[in-house]
Design goal:
heterodimer; A: 67 residues; mainly alpha; 5 helices; elongated; B: 731 residues; Cytochrome C Oxidase, Chain A; Cytochrome Bc1 Complex, Chain D, domain 2; 2 domains; two-stranded antiparallel sheet; two-stranded antiparallel ribbon
Chain lengths: 67, 731
């Protein structure tokens, strides 16, 4: 019995449905952990990261230049 | 824990380099686009020259704007933002330079090889195998530099923009390698290891995800960095960005089969592709809303700031394009839109609106910072914004109208139940005014691009002789997360922060998401027999037909002609029997096409005498007065390379096509023999002499064979010997 026989035996509907279930489970897990857990302050810090660095622009150079 | 403060400077020179070539290649790629748009209304602009003909320049346009314009912009954005988000200089300046010059060399190789007719034919993957290998190597160089920088970062948390960059790096590597697996047949010639249905599936798994992971995820990463910078506001919702990222990465990869609705692709794959495409509405709109709401409280700035204007319109186009894409993936909508300009309009709404305007916004924001001077002209940037916006709208409205017009004309029947527009050229002629409007819209957009280039050059010229290199400070990266954060465990989503802190693990999860979703479609596609029912009468191409197929690929005929008749009444009435999966088992690569600027050719074999093809190739308007097809006078003049015929057949044998060793050895003689017969028939029909060893005869041999196998009776094919039996025996 070849792998082709094994796969053909599954039937095609199984792949689509399993994929959908897999996605549903992954989506649910990510949503729950992202939105329901109390990690607000961590995300609050993370979202400010782009604003922490300087843009390298003329007006900021004085602040960051040393020596 | 005591914090050791480290000092460092960023490598902005590499960003400047990538930014400058972005503008240069943007102008080149778009001007080629304008030329091919003009060729469709003025075929004389093909100049009867092989390397200026539409079929060869169209891939040059798409590759230039995707990989040269958008590609270099991605690298500029990634190098600039990653260093700052990671608080670290790029890992290696040398790798950065190798990445830069390697990528430019690839672009130059593409700009030379595509007009010369070296093509694999697969859309956005046309480049031949030596260039593909170079792309893989340079991509690894980029990845090494990026991941090296991640490893020596001073900020533990990986900001969401970096996740999108990681997804881009790993997904593009996987897509590029697996779609470009080929058997080499010459220094610049190869055949896809996949055939027919499976090749089509792999191509659109790649093609759709090239849009996803080259034109979407890196630009979303850039949106999440540059938009907050320009608006001076943090992203609206970081949680929404997490959801946006994971759902997009997981869902996108399934959607490819929607490019093949109603083709010979099995219906299960088509339905699966449609379902996941529709699901893409969720993350796409989540991302768009997140982007637009980032501007809360900053909308007043939009009126004054050309950077924010570009970003707002770009994000709006992201929303519109990602609404339209899933809509077009619905089978009944796709039945109308497929093979028409609707697809071209959709692509340009995304490319000109989303990608282009994100790039321009980023360029104008970066210019004063990179070149350490004022932007040369703010007014010029404002003018660029307005003529660019008007240009996009003119382009897409005209081409939407063209797509709908032609799609409806394709399927129109009169009261007696016959095709209302049986002559294909009637549907083309109706589009000419809309094509002129496209030229105008595209011309305006390019004018904006030129204004941008001018502004860039003038800003560059007013830069200081030596750039200041500000020194930054940050504490060295702690060995681990603070104990209190980790100690809170799963409840505080520490698991995700750990991923974010460990780029290797995070990257592995991205690979798992991309690969597992891919395998759910790829494994059944390749292993389940019922996907490609074989047809005993279908036999391999003769050596001359195979050589003719190579000519067809080289000239880019597949850019305007499909070889796929869908099982739709208007198509079978126009073109004949619908296409069967088993007809393509020897098609390495598949040539189904994606747009019908000219008619489908699946059943062209035997429809016209050989002489008709001679006349048609020499001057298409001699057989169809209003044709927009380029002339191909060189085909009758250039000799066929018979040594390449033999190596081509040998490569096909490697791929499993059942030629016997004798057939391989005698391939050139067999091709000459068949060429003589066709040339003789042309002379007998009143045509020119001396065509027997030309490329034209090979192409005619191929065209006359197309779609004829299923018209042969199985018994007759069986009497032909072992080939039919071998076909029947294939899994």
């Amino acid at each position: 019995m070849s792998l082709t026989d094994v796969m053909s035996g599954f039937g095609l509907h199984m792949f689509a449905e399993a994929g959908l279930v897999l996605f549903g489970a992954a989506f649910l897990a990510i949503t729950v952990t992202t939105f329901l857990r109390r990690n607000r302050e961590q995300f609050e810090r993370a979202r400010l990261l782009p604003l922490e660095d300087d843009g390298g622009g003329p007006q900021e150079r004085e602040v960051t230049s040393h020596e | 824990m005591s914090e050791r403060v480290e000092r460092f400077v960023y490598d902005d020179q590499i960003v400047r380099m990538f930014l400058l070539v972005t503008v240069l290649w943007g102008v080149v790629g778009m001007v080629v686009g304008l030329l091919i748009a003009l060729q469709l209304v003025l075929p004389v602009l093909n100049f009867q020259t092989s390397w200026l003909s539409f079929g060869r320049l169209r891939p040059l346009h798409t590759n230039a704007v995707i990989f040269a314009f958008a590609g270099n912009a991605i690298f500029a954005g990634v190098y600039y933002s990653s260093q700052r988000l990671l608080k670290a200089r790029m890992w290696s300046d040398a790798l950065g330079r190798l990445h830069f010059w390697g990528w430019q060399a690839i672009i130059v190789a593409a700009a030379i090889s595509l007009p010369l007719g070296y093509s694999q034919s697969k859309e956005y993957a046309e480049l031949e195998w030596p260039i593909d290998i170079a792309i893989a190597i340079i991509w690894v160089v980029f990845a090494a530099n990026f991941f090296g920088t991640l490893a020596r970062r001073r900020e533990r948390h990986l900001y969401v923009a970096l996740w999108f960059y990681i997804a881009t790096l790993v997904a593009i590597a996987v897509l590029h390698i697996f779609n470009n697996l080929v058997v080499v047949a010459g220094p610049m010639k190869s055949y896809s290891i996949y055939a027919g249905v499976q090749d089509a599936f792999m191509q659109w798994w790649y093609g759709h995800n090239a849009v996803a992971f080259f034109l979407t995820t890196p630009f979303l990463g850039m949106m999440y960095y540059f938009l907050p910078k320009a608006a001076e506001r943090p992203v609206y919702s970081y949680r929404l960005s997490i959801l946006h990222f994971w759902t997009l990465v997981f869902i996108y990869i399934w959607a490819g089969p929607h490019h093949l609705h109603y083709t010979a692709l099995p219906a299960w794959a088509s339905t699966l592709g449609m379902l996941f495409s529709v699901m893409l509405w969720m993350p796409s709109w989540g991302g768009m809303i997140n982007g637009l709401l980032t501007l809360r409280g900053a909308w007043s700035k939009v009126t004054d700031d050309p950077v924010l204007k570009f970003f707002v319109v770009a994000i709006t186009f992201y929303g519109m394009s990602t609404f339209e894409g899933p809509l077009m993936s619905i089978k009944s909508v796709n039945a109308l839109s497929h093979y028409t300009d609707w697809t071209i309009a959709h692509v340009h709404a995304g490319a000109l609106g989303w990608v282009g305007f994100m790039v321009f916004g980023m360029i104008y924001w970066l210019l004063p910072r990179l070149f350490q001077t004022e932007l040369w002209s703010r007014k010029l940037a404002e003018l660029h914004f307005w003529i660019g916006t008007i240009g996009i709208l003119l382009y897409i409205v005209a081409i939407y109208a063209a797509g709908l017009t032609q799609g409806l004309m394709f399927r129109a029947f009169d009261e007696s139940g016959r095709l209302a527009y049986p002559d294909f050229i009637e549907t083309t002629m109706r589009l000419i005014p809309m094509y002129w409007a496209r030229v105008l819209g595209g011309g305006l957009y390019i004018a904006g691009m030129v204004l941008c280039a001018w502004n860039v050059v003038m800003t560059w010229r007013s830069a200081p002789a030596t750039y200041a290199e500000p020194v930054h400070e940050a504490p060295a990266l702690a060995a681990a997360y603070p104990a209190e954060a980790v100690g809170a465990g799963f409840k505080r989503a520490a698991w995700h922060r750990r991923w974010e802190g460990m780029p290797l693990t995070f990257s592995i999860w991205v690979v798992v998401a991309v690969v597992s979703a891919s395998l759910f479609e790829i494994i059944p596609m390749f292993l389940i027999r019922s996907n490609v029912p074989t047809i005993a009468a279908v036999t391999p191409y003769t050596p001359l037909e195979l050589a003719g197929r190579d000519v067809y690929i080289s000239e880019g005929c597949n850019n305007c002609h499909s070889q796929m008749i869908r099982p739709i009444r208007s198509e079978t009435a126009r073109y004949g029997e619908y296409s069967k999966p088993g007809e393509f088992v020897y098609d390495h690569p598949f040539l189904w096409g994606s747009r019908r600027i000219g008619p489908d050719l699946q059943r062209i074999g035997g429809k016209y005498p050989n002489l008709w093809h001679v006349r048609h190739m020499e001057d298409p308007r001699s057989t169809t007065p209003q044709s927009v097809m380029p002339p191909y006078p060189w085909l009758a003049k250039r000799p066929l390379d018979f040594a390449a015929v033999e190596s081509g057949v040998a490569a096909q044998v490697t791929l499993g096509v059942p030629y016997t060793p004798d057939q391989v050895k005698g391939a050139a003689d067999h091709a000459r023999e068949q060429g003589k017969k066709i040339a003789q028939a042309i002379v007998e029909q009143g045509g020119p002499k001396g065509l027997e060893e030309t490329r034209l005869v090979a192409l005619i041999a191929y065209l006359q064979r197309l779609g004829t196998d299923i018209k042969k009776s199985t018994a007759a094919a069986g009497a032909g010997g072992q080939r039919a039996e071998t076909v029947a025996g294939r899994p």
